[in-house]
Amino acid sequence: MLSIVILTYNSSSSIERTLKSLVILSDDIHIVDSFSTDDTLAICSRYNCQVVQRPFKNYADQRNWAIDNLPLKHPWQMHVDADEELEPESARIIRELDLTRSEFDGYILGRRMVFMGRTLKYGPLALTWHCRLFRVGYGRCEDRLYDQHFVCKGRLKQLRAFMLDHQEQSLSEWTVRHNRWSDMEAHDILQGTGIAQEGQIQAKSLGNVIERKRYAKARYYEFPLFWRAFAYFFYRYFLRLGFLDGREGLIFHSLQAFWFRFLVDAKIFEKLHTNSAGTEK
Question: Alpha-carbon distance 35 to 37, whole Å?
C-alpha cells in the first residue's frame, strides 16, 4: 500500500472526482488544506481523509512541509493535485506494483491535459511526465516558484500510467493565475533559479523524460527575448500539430504557448529596463 497527499484550497468542484479515482489505491489519504471556505473539507470527510490545515506560502513550501511532517502510514507516498484524476487503468497498474520488493525508488507518471472539456492530444503539454510516486525519504519538491517538480534520489522507472489534469476554471481565472505565474517565472529566471540548480531537476539531453524536458526549457531561454515566444507557438501549434485539437487547441496554445511566454519575457524586459534605469541614476 501507499499513502497519498493532496493539497487543497476551495477545491469542492474537483476533489470528489480526484478522491474517487484514488480510494482503490490507499487507506491513508492526507489532505493539506489552506483554509478552504467551500465544501472541500466536508467532501474529504466522506472519504475518511486525514486533514490538516496550514497557511499557503507557495507550492514547494507546502509540499515539502507535507513530506516532512505528515504521519504517513506507508513507506511509499504519492502526490496528486486536487484537480487531477487517475485513470482507472492507471490505478490498476499502480495497485499491482509490488512496492515492497521494488528495485526502484520512484515512479514517473504521465499527466494528460484536459482544457475546456477536451483532452488534448497534440503539442508537448498534451502529455507531460512527473515523478509523483516515491519511497518515503527519497523525494522532495524543487524550491522554485513556478514549474516545480518532485526530485527523487535513487532509481526511477517511467510507468504507462496517466492522470487527467482538468483545467476547469473560467478563462478569466485561468489568465489571472497565469499572470501571477508569469511573475514567478520571470523572478526565477532573473534570479538564476529558473534553470536547474542543486537540489532541482538537472537539464540532461540524454536523461530521463523529465530531465530532457528541463534541458529543452534551458535551451529555450538561450533564445532572444520575445522572438522565442513566437517560435515556441509556431513549434507547438504547427510542428507539433496543436491545430488538430480544434478550437480548444487554438485557444490553449495561443494563450499558454504565446501569450503566457510573451508575458514572461515582457516582465523580464521590464525588470531589466527598470534596473538599468536605476543604475544610470
Answer: 6
pLDDT for 278 beyond 80: no
Instruction: Measure the CA–CA gap between 63 and 238, rounded to whole angstroms.
Output: 36
The pTM is what? 0.93
Q: Is residue 89 part of a domain?
A: no
Alpha helices in the chain (DSSP H): 15-22, 40-46, 59-69, 88-95, 171-190, 209-220, 227-234, 246-252, 260-280
pLDDT-derived band at 277, boundaries 50, 70, 90: low
Cβ contacts of residue 129 below 8 Å, gap of 6+?
A: 108, 109, 110, 111, 158, 209, 210, 213
Angle between helices 227-234 and 260-280 (to 10 degrees): 170
Residue-wise pLDDT tens digits, 3-36: 999 999 999 999 999 999 999 999 999 999 999 9
Give yes or no for a contact between 109 and 164, defined as CB atoms under 8 angstroms apart: no
Q: Of 114, 116, 79, which Cα lies nearest the Cα of 5? A: 79
Report the number of distinct structural domains present in the chain.
1
Structural domain contains residue 188? yes
Asked, for residue 138, whether it belongs to a domain, the answer is no
Tell me how crowded residue 173 is: count the other CB atoms within 10 A of its CB: 10
198 occurs within a structural domain = yes
Whose CA is closest to 235, among 208, 217, 209? 217
107 touches 25 (CB < 8 A): no
Q: Give pLDDT tens digits for 113-158.
A: 999 999 999 999 999 999 999 999 999 999 988 899 999 999 999 9
Per the structure, the complete domain to which residue 177 belongs is given by: 171-280
